[in-house]
Design goal:
Structural class: alpha/beta
Strand content: 15-25%
Number of helices: 9
Radius of gyration: 16 Å
Shape: globular
CATH topology: TIM Barrel
Largest sheet: 4 strands, parallel
Distance between the termini: 23 Å
Number of domains: 1
CATH class: Alpha Beta
Order of helices and strands: HEHEHEHEHEHEHEEHH
Number of strands: 8
CATH superfamily: Aldolase class I
Length: about 210
């Protein structure tokens, strides 16, 4: 199964912000216990790279990617630590080109027809749509998918359990969000809350898929 297929199967991509690297293993295990086998560790904290390294070593069953990748240097560092995919908030030519040359899945943020065209011409088929709630959400994704029929989106920002079911449509590969893996819960060591959040989200996705 490819990285893209694994993400599509799970449908949920927790945006994980961890301040202390030693909590990486417990966080990953909490996600797995809740049925979520994917995590996007952001590089917003100094612990980010170490978190990726720790998860790769301790939880091989989880697919881990690096998020908030803002430079080629960060991209290379994340890959060297074991990241299986790269996510950036915007389209960075250096990052995209490097990932494509090295067969590394990369999902840059693209929200306008011009940005999507650039990504499409580069050969990308999956794009992050961020922040989804600011740039039109589901209505925008459906409208953009009309001319860009081969593009799948990973909307992030403004998606939660209240509207998650609405995003279970063919144009959406998966959804990203921090609500599945709360930063405060990690800080407090409340890993059961993370597992419970995962189970609740998976139930919503499963029911939506059954109705589709």
């Amino acid at each position: 199964m490819t990285i893209k297929e694994k993400i599509a199967e799970c449908f949920l991509v927790p945006v994980v912000v961890i301040d202390e690297a030693e909590k990486a293993k417990d966080t990953a295990q909490a996600l797995l216990a809740g049925g979520v086998k994917v995590m996007e560790v952001t590089l917003r904290t100094e612990a980010g790279l170490k978190v990726i390294e720790n998860v790769v070593k301790s939880c091989p069953d989880i697919l881990i990617g690096a998020g908030t990748v803002l430079s080629l240097a960060q991209c290379k560092d994340a890959i060297s630590r074991g990241a299986s995919f790269i996510v950036s908030p915007g389209y960075d030519t250096e990052i995209v080109d490097y990932c494509l040359k090295n067969n590394m899945p990369v999902f840059p943020g693209c929200v306008t027809p011009t940005e999507i065209t650039v990504a499409y011409k580069a050969g990308l088929e999956v794009l992050k749509f961020f922040p989804a709630n600011v740039y039109g959400g589901l209505a925008a994704i459906k409208a953009l998918s009309a001319p860009f029929t081969k593009i799948k989106f990973i909307p992030t920002g403004g998606v939660d359990n209240k509207n998650l079911a609405d995003f279970v449509i063919p144009q959406v590969l998966a959804v990203g969000g921090s609500w599945i893996c709360d930063r405060k819960a990690i800080k407090e060591g409340n890993f059961q809350a993370i597992t419970d959040a995962c189970k609740a989200a998976i139930k919503i996705v499963s029911e939506a898929r059954a109705k589709a």
